[in-house]
Design brief:
The protein is mainly β. It has no helices and four strands. Strands 1-2 form a two-stranded antiparallel ribbon. Strands 3-4 form a two-stranded parallel ribbon.
């Protein structure tokens, strides 16, 4: 989930490879990382978005 929280953008360069414009992009799947059992789902999920949950329960005993 290396892309979690990152935005995509198109960087426009001139003939000398100097940045002249940056255009935000909102295409393709987005990646979310959710930590904790009580964390709410991200708002505005779309088809194709990906998320990973991580929860650590302390004091859990018993056979698994």
């Amino acid at each position: 989930m290396n892309e979690a929280g990152q935005s995509k953008r198109l960087i426009v360069l001139d003939h000398d490879y100097q940045q002249i414009e940056e255009i935000p992009l909102d295409i393709g799947p987005r990646h979310f990382y959710i930590e904790g059992a009580q964390q709410a789902m991200p708002q505005g999920l779309r088809a194709g978005d990906r998320f990973v949950t991580h929860s650590c329960v302390q004091g859990l005993t018993g056979n698994m």
